[in-house]
Amino acid sequence: MHQYLFYIGDFPIRSYGLVLSLSIILAVGVGYFLAKQDGRWHEHIVDLGIYSGVAGILGARLWDVFFFDWDYYGNHITEIFNVWQGGMAIQGGVFLGTIAGIIYARKHNIDVLALADILAPAIILGQAIGRCANLLNGDAFGTPTGTGYGIIYPATTLAHHVYGSQPLWPAEVWEGQLDMVIFALLLLFRSFKHGRGQAFTLYVMLYSAARFFLEFLRGDYSELVFGICTSAQMTSIIAFVLALAGFIYCGWRDRNRKDTAEPIKTGRTSKTKRR
């Protein structure tokens, strides 16, 4: 676990920033592959990835600042954009990144729901790799395990500052692993007939459910909303319910339509050339 890979003069090259950038690049690359395989809009993926990526980083940071850590940042305004200190809420990143994607798609007359279905696996893959950045940076950590099992973070990390040398639950590691499982499930789901919009809403449902239960192990914040659950759990509940409603509606709406998504086909099995 290394927060700093090397220095250029006095400027540190941080593992967090490098891996986070890699997660965006790889997510865009997988999104390009999926869009090209589908035969639609692959020429827009790089531009869309840049806009949504920047919006996602901004959203993730602001979501964490205002919903999770305002007690601190309210008194340290100049540190709001010091992302290397840790503090990036993925739910805020997905929210603002999705908004940016919707705006881009509408501007270029792209079917928003169909594009969201195509890119859903790429988004969760980016999230999975991004959790590696959290591990290397020592944030998004878990609570003490109370046993000899767990991760002991270096003294330079936020996790060590909060809990010292106690073994902590590997919350960020398990979330990254669950994200990879969701990635595989979405690819499998897209290989069967589904209503337009169902792949994306399934992604939201699966991630929200995983995040809700993992929050019981998170130790980087503990403030409860209405004394019931954490902010991330509340967000997960709302997102899950809305996504479930959307999943049901998309399936009902497209059940008898001709534009119901067909299973993804690989190779040239059709004589009709897609444009």
UniProtKB/TrEMBL annotation:
PANTHER family in the record: PHOSPHATIDYLGLYCEROL--PROLIPOPROTEIN DIACYLGLYCERYL TRANSFERASE, PROLIPOPROTEIN DIACYLGLYCERYL TRANSFERASE
Biological role: Catalyzes the transfer of the diacylglyceryl group from phosphatidylglycerol to the sulfhydryl group of the N-terminal cysteine of a prolipoprotein, the first step in the formation of mature lipoproteins.
Organism for this UniProt entry: Pectinatus haikarae
Membrane protein topology class: Multi-pass membrane protein
Enzyme class of the recorded protein, top EC level: transferase
Pathway connected to this protein: Protein modification; lipoprotein biosynthesis (diacylglyceryl transfer)
Residue sites binding a 1,2-diacyl-sn-glycero-3-phospho-(1'-sn-glycerol) per the record: R131
EC code: 2.5.1.145
High-level lineage: Bacteria, Bacillati, Bacillota, Negativicutes, Selenomonadales
Name of the protein in question: Phosphatidylglycerol--prolipoprotein diacylglyceryl transferase
TM annotation in the entry: 13-33, 45-63, 83-105, 112-130, 173-192, 199-218, 224-249
Primary location class: membrane
GO molecular function, one term: transferase activity
Subcellular location: Cell membrane
The entry's keywords: Cell membrane, Membrane, Transferase, Transmembrane, Transmembrane helix
Source organism superkingdom: Bacteria
Family stated for the protein in its record: Belongs to the Lgt family.
